[in-house]
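>> received
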Amino acid sequence: MNAMSLAIGAGALLLYSLISGRLQGTIITAPLAFAAFGLAVGTGGFGVAELDFEHGAIHVVAELTLILVLFTDAARIDLRCVRRDHNLPVRMLLVALPLAVLVGAVIAKWLFPSIMIWEAALLAALLAPTDAALGQAVVSSKDVPVRIRQALNVESGLNDGIVLPAVLLFAALASAGQETASAGSWVQFVLLQLTLGPLTGVVLGYLGARLLDTAAERGWASAAYQGIGILAMAVLTYLVAELLGGNGFIAAFIGGMVFGNCLRHPCTFLFEFMETEGQLLMLITFLVFGAALLPEAIEHFHPEYVVYALLSLTVIRMVPVAVSLIGARVRLPTQLFLGWFGPRGLASILFVLLVMEEADVPNHEMLLSITMITVALSTLLHGVTAAPFAKLYGGMTQRMGECAENQPVPELPLREGPMPAIND
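>> returned
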């Protein structure tokens, strides 16, 4: 990474900021634009930007992005509201998500018989979390019933943190290879990684919410520094968990969930972060994806990888979603709509970078290539279909009249901030 690469990245951010309003609501989404630009200027295109995905700076940015995404995604979801009014995403998280990992692992093992079962499970887990940002026109469209777009919004906000322990566990098992770990080592793994991490998140999330409430009520904290406070809170939660021997990423997710649901005063600084710093980190990630990760995936390309990627975006996602919605009284078009709009994006990119840095998985090049190809196809296919499919489906639901799809529910903030007042 050199000065030219940084200058190109800064120029891309400036250019997109100037035309972002004109592109809003079109088939050209921000992730698609930055992934395509990265591919054009990186080693897969003109080669004017030198970005190595193994560079330490990229991994630092990826880890910081993952910490903040896990924390803020969890913090923006009101669990009481979800439990009371949003049964569709609850079904998709509790039934469809684990079923998708199971189905994805079985298909991966069948399609790639040379890999271990734990590698197949890891691949399925890497591709399980969804990213509503890739279908922004769906979750922000006033044409789509609020209950349906909020189902996708809530699901994408929680499924990355929920599937993270499975990613870490499968990566550890895949790294162990054929060796059988002792009972003591597995007990230690469970206690330290999957217990101390959540415990740290609960304690620091609650304490952080109480401290910020007290400071805001007494006028000690300005609005600007409240935003800095949440960044420090997320990073501190991660670091304390790591120092104690737990998993910092799990701690960040649990800490964000506790923080957001225990905070008493309006969380405006969180929304401001998601609209600015959060968006910036997302765009940088997709730029790196196009410039460094996608060319690496193409270098190790096999036709079977595309087959699995397409299955991941269709059968592996849509069948579990349909199963989870049995008894929910939503119609077939809705099941297909919710099944299709499960884009793979930010979480999958960050998870695979995390696995490649912290685990020694035998077929890591294959996992990287399949994951990046899936994200690339998802960025393209979900990006270009979001706006037209949202309008088409919205028209269908308007003709349905009074039905389960049109049941009113409260709206929760999107990753990009509060719901827009006007639909472009």
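>> Residues 29-400 form a domain with the Na+/H+ antiporter like fold fold (CATH 1.20.1530.20).
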